[in-house]
Specification:
Layout (H helix, E strand, L loop, with lengths): L1 E2 L7 E2 L16 E3 L2 E3 L1 H38 L6 H25 L3 H18 L6 H28 L6 H24 L4 H27 L3 E2 L6
Antiparallel strand pairs: 1-2, 3-4, 3-5
This protein binds zinc ion (ZN) (2 copies).
């Protein structure tokens, strides 16, 4: 048997589930049902901050998408103000920061890849001026590809780690949704291209459901429920 990292005189069969160092019963802490050591518990403060960034980032994205949808729906005008685009970049940067944390916590590189793609997507949309000129059409198409691949990869990443999250069912559903909705979007948008407002509404609703699920994930992950370890005897 190995000795507790904090108490070298105590032998223990237990180990921290995050950093794998051996810990005795007294040193064990249960966070979200997972046994961790005191050092990893300290690390969870920065984790909570990161999850808060994710929450804020997704809230910004939801606000921007809703505002531009409703303005477009009622006035037919596309919002292309600089302030709007900057807010978009801020939102995706915050999301990126949270995804970098998830990458480090779960050792899953797909989180960084997806965060980068979604961030690039927000930069690309900055370059789109009038959606009708050919150059902007090219940029818009490229940004759509970034958007879709970013969310599909993010979905894959969630499906890799869902077992270790606060609400595995939600995370699994989130992962599946993010992988599938871009395909549903393409198929439905193509088939409903004639019914213009319906496809515009769809362009709004499909990603929005993804955002809301993502928001719920970040909110759940940021509330740690710490309980003392149950004694087995
Ligand atoms: Zn640890
Ligand atoms: Zn100990």
């Amino acid at each position: 048997m190995v000795s507790c990292y904090y108490h070298p005189d105590r032998e223990t069969p237990f180990a921290c589930n995050r950093c794998t160092r051996p810990i005795c019963e007294e040193c064990q802490l249960t966070v979200n049902g997972i046994v961790i050591c005191p050092d990893c518990d300290k690390g969870s403060t920065s984790r909570n901050e990161s999850m808060l960034w994710g929450t804020l980032g997704v809230m910004v994205l939801i606000t921007i998408d809703s505002a531009s949808y409703f303005v477009f729906f009622f006035t037919g005008v596309l919002i292309h103000t600089i302030l709007f685009k900057i807010a978009f970049i801020v939102g995706s940067s915050l999301l990126f920061a949270a995804l970098i944390h998830l990458r480090n916590e779960h050792n899953q590189d797909l989180f960084v890849a997806s965060g980068l793609l979604i961030f690039l997507y927000s930069l690309f949309s900055f370059a789109v001026r009038t959606p009708t000129d050919p150059e902007s059409m090219f940029l818009a198409l490229s940004s759509m590809i970034l958007f879709f691949s970013g969310f599909i990869i993010l979905g894959r990443a969630f499906l890799e780690i869902y077992r270790k999250t606060t609400d595995p069912k939600l995370t699994k559903f989130l992962g599946r949704y993010l992988v599938l909705f871009p395909f549903a979007w393409i198929i439905l948008a193509l088939s409903m291209g004639i019914i213009y407002f319906l496809s515009v509404t769809l362009n709004f609703i499909l990603p929005m459901v993804g955002y809301v699920l993502l928001l719920t994930f970040f909110m759940k992950e940021s509330e740690e429920n710490k309980t003392p370890l149950e004694k087995e005897n």
